[in-house]
Amino acid sequence: MSALDLHVHRWVPAETPGLPTLLMLHGTGGDENDLLPLGRTLLPGAAMLSPRGNVLEHGAPRFFRRLAEGVFDIEDLHRRTGELADFVEAASETYGLSPDSIYAVGYSNGANIAASVLLSRPSVIAGGVLLRAMVPFEPANPPSLAGKRVLISAGKLDQMIAPAGTDRLATILRDAGADVELEWQPTGHGLTAGDLKAAQRFLESIT
Prior knowledge:
The protein is α/β, with parallel strands linked by helices and about 210 residues long. The protein contains five helices and eleven strands. The protein has a single domain, classed as Alpha/Beta hydrolase fold, catalytic domain (Rossmann fold), CATH 3.40.50.1820. It has a seven-stranded mixed β-sheet with strand order 1-3-2-8-9-10-11, with helices on both faces. A hairpin with a 2-residue loop joins β4 and β5. α2 packs across α3.
C-alpha cells in the first residue's frame, strides 16, 4: 500500500501557477470536502490537498484520539502525525509538490495536528494557518523551525482553549525558530470574518 492511501483525500489542482499549495485539515466532524470552500476563499486558484482524519469519535472523523475535551491521547497523536506526514510526502511525489510551498490550513483538531506536524516532521510543510489551535505536545528536543511561517488565529472567548494555551503554542513555535503571527479575535471557537481576513492577508504575503 502506498502512503498516499493512508488518507481518503481530495486533490484540487492549481488554477493559478505559482501559488502555495494548501493542506486543508478539517475539525472534528468534518471530512475531505469540508474546508475546500474555505481554501477557495482564502487563496483563489491555489492547489488544495484535503485529507480525511482516520479516527472516529462517535461517528465524527478526527485526526487523532482524545481522552476528554482538551486531553489528547499522546501515543495516538504521535502515530497519526507520522501517518499524516508520510501521506503528505507521498502526495508531494505523486502530485509534483514542493514541501517549501505547502502550507497547512487547519481548524481546531486539524490545527492541532498541523502544529504536531510542525513540531515532529517539519520538513513536509513550510508553515501553516492554525485556526483555534492549542499545544498538541511539548517536544523534549524541539526541531529547528527556521524559515517556517505560521499564523495562529485564536478566539478571546474560546471556551475550549484557554488563552494561556494559545500563548504557549506561539512561544514553543517561536523558540524553535518559526516566524509566528498571533491574532486574537473577539469571539469563541467558531470562525469569523476576522479569521478569514487574517488568513487571507497571511497567505497573500507568502505568494
